[in-house]
Design brief:
The chain is α/β, with parallel strands linked by helices. It is 35% helix and 30% strand. It is built from eleven helices and 14 strands. Helix 9 packs parallel to helix 11. The longest helix has 10 residues. It is globular and about 40 Å long.
């Protein structure tokens, strides 16, 4: 398993959102290029970037910062957030991005997503972000309630939910030539309480596509547990910025 450090961008700065909530934002490094250089020094080979403004706007917004990181030429970069047309995807590839992450548009228009997966074979990643239907989730100022035990896919920067469940959609998408599926449990994201191992395991066992775990990975033990499940990689964000986990230690743990 390999480790992918994360940079979430708003206004060209590195931030983290608690449970995907834009009203619970923590500001970190003001210079994302410097942050990327720190990750490189610690041994990173991949970088996960989320354009948070792009996720809400439905188009890439922080392309200047992404381009500056790509120009370092030392990281394989995957980017998500607002990728809902072919031109936006091509724009990222043109500035040196390795993989494009598509979530909202994949769910909203699966036929289009299928075409993009075929056109950019091996370079498209499906981003599946879910909330546990058994929990009440408050997003910004609006309450969102779910009934039953269905695990629902969220879209539009986690501001909307769909009727699609995690495994239903993953199985459908796994038939396409995608590079990977990134699974994020929104209720775990930024909480530093550990990943959703049960759902990650279910996804790994359900599809024949590399699964990347995201959300809540905080400790060396978390990394070892995710690796034991058979995940291809783990994305780590807030724990690196808060200093509860170092990237070099995380990379070593993932190789065990």
């Amino acid at each position: 398993m390999y480790i992918i450090p994360a940079i979430d961008l708003i206004e060209g700065q590195c931030v983290r959102l608690i449970q995907g909530r834009y009203d619970r934002r923590i500001n970190y490094q003001s210079n994302p290029v410097k942050q990327a250089e720190d990750f490189i020094a610690a041994g990173a080979r991949w970088l996960h970037i989320v354009d948070l403004e792009g996720a809400k706007a439905g188009r890439p917004v922080n392309t200047e910062a992404i381009s500056a990181i790509a120009e370092l030429g030392k990281l394989k970069i995957e980017v998500g957030g607002g990728l809902r047309d072919e031109a936006s995807i091509q724009q990222l590839f043109d500035i040196g991005v390795e993989r494009a992450i598509i979530g909202t548009k994949a769910v909203a228009d699966f036929e289009w997503f299928s075409r993009m997966a075929e056109k950019f074979s091996g370079k498209i990643v499906l981003g599946l972000d879910t909330r546990d239907a058994s929990e009440d989730v408050f997003y910004e100022s609006e309450p969102v309630y779910y009934e039953g035990d269905r695990v629902l896919v969220a879209t539009d920067g986690w501001t909307k939910n769909t009727s699609e469940t995690l495994l239903e959609f993953a199985n459908k998408a796994a038939k396409l030539p995608i590079a990977a599926i990134i699974y994020t449990d929104i209720t775990k994201d930024g909480m530093m309480t550990g990943p959703n191992l049960e759902r990650t395991k279910a996804l790994v066992e359900a599809v024949d596509v590399p699964v990347v775990a995201s959300g809540g990975v905080t400790t060396i033990e978390d990394i070892k547990k995710v690796a034991e499940l058979g995940a291809a990689a783990a994305i780590i964000g807030r724990s690196l910025y808060e200093g509860t986990l170092t990237l070099s230690d995380a990379i070593k743990a993932a190789k065990v």
